Amino acid sequence: MANKQKFNETKTKHFKTLEQYVPIVARVHGKSHPEFHDVHTLFDVLARKIKEAGSGLPDLNEEFTKLREITNDYTVPGDVCESYEAVYNMLAELDKAYQT
C-alpha cells in the first residue's frame, strides 16, 4: 500500500524532530500564538496514535483535519522563528503523505 509506505517514510524523516520542536515552539510562541497550544495538543494525540500503531497506519483523519483548520492549512505567521515554520512544514508534509 503506497499510502502506508509514503506515510511511514515521512514519519521516519520528521517525527523525532517534531517531538523535539513542538514543545519548545509552544513554550516560546504560545503566548503570542495561543493556537499553537492546540497544535501541541493535537500533535501529542498524533504521536500517541502513531506509536500505538507501530508500523501500521493509524486513523489520523480527525487530527489532520483539525490541524488544517487551526493552522489555516499550515500557513506560517510572519512573526515566528524558523523552528515554528519548520514544525508547520513538517506537519504539512506528514499530512500530505497521509492523505496520498
Major beta sheet summary: none
The H/E string reads HHHH
Low-confidence regions:
none
Shape: globular
Radius of gyration: 13 Å
Q: What is the domain total for the residues?
A: 1
Average residue pLDDT: 94
Query: How much helix, percentage-wise, in residues?
Result: over 70%
Count the E strands: 0
- How does the helix and strand content classify structurally? mainly alpha
What does this structure look like?
By secondary structure, the protein is mainly alpha-helical. The chain has one domain (2-99). It is 75% helix and 0% strand. It has helices at residues 2-29, 35-53, 61-70, 82-99. The termini are close together. The model has no long low-confidence stretch (mean pLDDT 94).
Features:
100 residues, 4 helices, 0% strand
Brief account:
The protein has helices spanning 2-29, 35-53, 61-70, 82-99.
Blueprint of the fold:
Elements: H1 2-29, H2 35-53, H3 61-70, H4 82-99
Helix pairs in contact: 1-2, 1-4, 2-3
